[in-house]
Amino acid sequence: MAPPKVGVTLATRSIYIFIVDPSLLKTDVCYVNGEWIKAKSGKTFQVNDPGTGDLVGNCPEFDAADTRAAISAAETAFASFRKTTGRERSKLLRKWYDLVIEHTEDLATIIAWENGKPVADARGEMAYAASFLEWFSEEAPRIYGDTIPSSIPGNRVVTLKEPVGVCALITPWNFPAAMITRKFGPALAAGCAVVCKAPGETPFSPLALAELAHRAGIPAGVVNVITALDNTPLVGETLVTDPAVRKISFTGSTNVGKLLMKQASGTLKKLSMELGGNAPFIVFDDADVDAAVAGAVASKFRGSGQTCVCANRIFVQKGIYDEFAHKFAAKVREFKVGNGFAEGVTHGPLIHGRAIAKVDSHVRDAEAKGAQIVVGGQKLPDLGENFFQPTVLTGMTSAMAMASEETFGPVAGLFAFETEEEVVRLANSTTVGLAGYFFSRDLQRVQRVAEHLEVGMVGVNTGLISDAAAPFGGVKESGFGREGSMYGVDEYMITKTVTYGNMALPLQK
């Protein structure tokens, strides 16, 4: 058997990381104007495996000048790409999709290595990521304008849908492939050219996708992927202030989203923001408890709780609180934490030390204020610096930090409630509103609560709501705009109105 191309060792067990096509792992270069280039300064930064701390590779430390060069390449490419037909763009996206499917295992391996999530979860992410390329390949030929009856006799009004222009995409580390395709798909379907700032923690997945875009024949300059770590604020400011960039799409924290929005105001760019969440997960007395437990496990612990739509506050009605807590804790005890490539592992490390510190502080705060640790509650230094036990807390109250702050980690706090009115008020008592979930078998309650939750997405009797066909986005300080679905392309287009006058001329006899 041929030796592995890449290998790491964890404790006494060798964990080998196989990459069938090593040309997908792009180190020391970014993708600009159809070429693989280094930063003009020659500077790079290190990317480390969050599970072992071992080096994955180096990436270019782009600066403002490098970023402006990428914007210029996109601006040049846009002039011609905008003229392609929807069918032509559809074929390019479909070819990109086919290549992603063909290389799914390598792409999943890269995700698991740089992000730390178990490889099985990484394969799931790749299926999700590919679905956006497929979805928007099908949307590209179906971008329609309208014919509008005019209120003025003799006038005729039509609308044209046109690509907005060069788009800057800023993506997060928690889904390094899916957040790329969810933005690239509609942008290219609309006819835009793109500069993407890849996350410094997980840049190799976006770069691998850029390599496949290149192989798919997407024209030079249409897809550009750049990297930075220390220069991230500078690169971000360059993208959102450059007048050639007409659209910003950002997924990340609310605080950074506010900063980018402020910086973008100078040129009045079109914006879409998918920001922080604090998702309520409500279980009513009339719910199917086993289904609710399964839904809570899927929602709370996916990606070790490092998702913007994961359950952050779990509200359980008092009549079934003890039963739910017992069954929920039993499921969490079945988890196996470890290196994402190790057999049987269900949950990997958190992304870095700052994430561990926040999770630990939330657990310690809750414990100090009276919560009981039913499962977990501790760091796992024997595995590595970034591991934390999946944790279940009971006896949660509104005085605890987890009630108002997003934990972004594998900690589930269970809050008791008595009435529907009370829990809806508690669920809505935040400045954010991305996702919300609830379980109930009362049809009237289902309709009432779904309408009253102040969130952009509601899961009813399910803990999983992500789907390329479903609009994704929030309200309040969780941002605005929608990704995926039939609405996704509109974020990358403008509506032009054309009015024809004096059209009602008499017919010649």
Automatic annotation (TrEMBL):
Positions of the Aldehyde dehydrogenase domain: 36-498
A Pfam family the protein falls into: Aldedh
Key word ATP-binding present: no
Family annotation (InterPro entries): Ald_DH/histidinol_DH, Ald_DH_C, Ald_DH_CS_GLU, Ald_DH_N, Aldehyde_DH_dom, Aldehyde_DH_Superfamily, Succ_semiAld_DH
Pathways per UniProt: Amino-acid degradation; 4-aminobutanoate degradation
Any one of the GO CC terms: cytoplasm
Record-listed E.C. numbers: 1.2.1.16
Broad class of enzyme this protein falls into: oxidoreductase
Cited CDD domains: ALDH_F5_SSADH_GabD (cd07103)
Catalytic reaction list: succinate semialdehyde + NADP(+) + H2O = succinate + NADPH + 2 H(+); succinate semialdehyde + NAD(+) + H2O = succinate + NADH + 2 H(+)
GO BP annotations listed: gamma-aminobutyric acid catabolic process
GO molecular function, one term: succinate-semialdehyde dehydrogenase (NAD+) activity
Active site: 274
Family in the record: Belongs to the aldehyde dehydrogenase family.
Protein name listed in UniProt: Succinate-semialdehyde dehydrogenase
Species in which this protein is naturally found: Bombardia bombarda
Lineage: Eukaryota, Fungi, Dikarya, Ascomycota, Pezizomycotina
